[in-house]
């Protein structure tokens, strides 16, 4: 009995190629994704075809690493900054805290997605950025008062 499957005894029927929304047939572009850490300079980080081929544009890989490094530092800065002025109204302070939290979580997810490219260089700059950011904004090295009563407008990121 022929049900249209490409199995022995079915008459060799094969499903047609998929159609796109215009009714035209298209081919699927196969994309290889790394599932373990690798040390190559040609990787896709965050966006499709970004930073692109290292052979064509070698500076773009380093620009992508710098971007992830800066994002990591920003996450730490937002985790330890004081932007709400003392004496602010509770509604205004709450709105500022909520917006800062949304920004911090969004940037932290972007760093996480960049690390999920499994590129060793991206992993190293993400950790280095978080480390340097904590050193400048979270450690006691540059604090004026010891111990701080409240170091941030936001609670620390926790699991």
TrEMBL record:
It is a multi-pass membrane protein. It is found in: Membrane. The keyword Transmembrane helix applies. It comes from the Eukaryota. The chain crosses the membrane at residues 30-47, 59-79, 91-112, 118-137. Pfam families: Ctr. Belongs to the copper transporter (Ctr) (TC 1.A.56) family. SLC31A subfamily. This is Copper transport protein.
